[in-house]
Amino acid sequence: MSKRRYYLEDRALDEAIARFEAALARAGGVHLLDSETIPLAQARGRITAAPVWAARSVPHYHAAAMDGIAVRAAATAGATESSPLTLTLGEQVVWVDTGDPMPPGTDAVVMAENVQVLDETTVAINAAVAPWQHVRPLGEDIVATELIVAEGAVLRPVDLGAIAAAGYATVTVRRRPRVAIIPTGTELITPEAAAAREAAGQPVQPGEIIEFNSLILAGLVEEWGGIPTRLPPVPDRQELLRAAVAEALANHDVLVINAGSSAGSEDYTASIIAEFGEVAVHGVAIRPGHPVILGVAGGKPAFGLPGYPVSAALTAELFLRPLLYRLQGLTPPERPKATAYISRKLLSPMGEDEFVRVTLGRVDGRLIATPLSRGAGVVTSLIRADAIAHIPRFSEGLHAGAEVTVELLRPQAEIESTIVAIGSHDLALDLLAGYLQRTGAGRRLSSANVGSFGGLMALKRRDAHLAGVHLLDEETGEYNVSYVRRYLPDEEIVLVHLADREQGFLVAPGNPLGLGTLADLTRTGVRFVNRQRGSGTRVLLDYQLRQAGIDPSAITGYEREEYTHMAVAAAVQSGAADVGLGIRAAAQALGLTFIPLFSEQYDLAVPRRHWESDLLAPLRQMLCEPAYRQAVAALGGYDVTRMGETVAVRHASPHP
């Protein structure tokens, strides 16, 4: 048995690519795939393997270009509206329809509207024509032997039509790269198996993971012109992975092994690739995706992509994408780039190139990039991302407001029509995003969850169009107004009421610990999960604890923070915590019991210039829509009676 390597390299990105290229060259290089001939109906998007030369002219005869009479042009000389010319139907004056062959001896067509029928054999014309007027001569469009489509062209629908017109029913194209994708891990179960078990009342167990990376990778391979084969997950056994790799290499052009690329006791990807060929790189100084493997197996390119979905997707983009295009004789298309301004400080490890997914929106003329979660396992960051920001190696990161070049993942027009919301999380905002999409108004709502204080600071920096806030003033009992005056003294803000909502304990079904008051949080053995500092829920909790005379240090888990109500609910559902403070809708969504404690006011803080803008017009309308209000109320724990009511906060008060 070969000795397994227990370490990862730390190759710079450029060096890793160079070493991979060298390994491919030693194995014989990257060659264009062979060709195949397929029907035109199946050829859209395929790449021509040879030039296509016209087999016939188009049109292949002189054709009438108008309905009318075919004539000798010379015979029409002198015809005008005031002095019509009479012609006799016969061999050289013949009725024709558009597309008809021109009769022998004719060289022009008089349009039907310029012809008056006098009797069965005689017509009068009121306009003369020049030779070849209203005639499509042979070869006007295509001349036989003319080049129609060059080699290496990506076939479009119009290309297929031209090839058919030029005399062909088939076309020779390059074969698409066949890519084998092997997921690895004893803990993996397929989505189909998981669904079948759920239907049978046997839910997925802790420690089991639904295998979905291969779906992501297969979709990317198809986008890049390849043919993916998703093979069944292989348990963490070296001999099973060896057999799966041998079978895959027999009939595929590229090998992708997903997971098992690190240096754990059951990570066999590197050693298996080495058995079949060469590991050129094991570990690249990038984040996410450090443990990626680049090599050659059986003379074919082989990749070991990390198991976390964000890492797998990024390393596929960096290394697999360019290879698949090369196999087809193409250069990978460059995505559009733009200059944006980062909405919050980002620290980055000095020795790694980091690729951060961001959401984008234009606020006050600047394109604002808001970082999404940087966790390698956070698949939702792949869904929500509008662009990727590259933080180069040896950079310490980016300060808030710094310029950054981003690579766009969405069309520019879609980004320009995005409403940027930064602030407190609420499920009603998630619903609002969906309703805006349904209206077809061309607006998209992008939310970043940083808490109420974070939202006000985003408005202060002009990084957002609106912020969700629910901040209680302990002195007045009023929500949000005093905070807006304090932190946004130079802005005219419109506070738009979204809903009154219940806050309370989120606990396991049936409330097995019998929790009912804040004092119960101090009981021995009760584990609490908190919201982050700056969130409205945290402000509310701290206020209520002071009112009750409870020391936060007496609460086990008070320092553990989550950034959304759903994250708190998930911690309770998973058993990682016994209780958290959150909204009823979050408890209802995950099947938890909700113990109501408080009612609070949730508003949208919007600078007036944005509130009255065309960009937010669909949002203003949506807050008045009965269907949206009913959907929010159905979440549970929401009172939408005052939804859409506004209060203008015009100036600062020295002591709110």
UniProtKB/TrEMBL annotation:
Pfam family membership, one: MoCF_biosynth
Family annotation (SMART domains): MoCF_biosynth
Gene Ontology CC: one annotated term: cytosol
GO terms classed as biological process: Mo-molybdopterin cofactor biosynthetic process
Enzyme Commission number(s): 2.10.1.1
CDD domains: MoeA
Cofactor(s) annotated in UniProt: Mg(2+)
MF GO annotations: metal ion binding; molybdopterin molybdotransferase activity
Enzyme class at the top of the EC tree: transferase
Boundaries of every MoaB/Mog domain copy: 180-326
Pathway per the UniProt entry: Cofactor biosynthesis; molybdopterin biosynthesis
Catalytic activity field: adenylyl-molybdopterin + molybdate = Mo-molybdopterin + AMP + H(+)
Task of the protein: Catalyzes the insertion of molybdate into adenylated molybdopterin with the concomitant release of AMP.
Family in the record: Belongs to the MoeA family.
The name this protein goes by in its record: Molybdopterin molybdenumtransferase
Annotated source species: Chloroflexus islandicus
The organism's taxonomic lineage, starting at the top: Bacteria, Bacillati, Chloroflexota, Chloroflexia, Chloroflexales
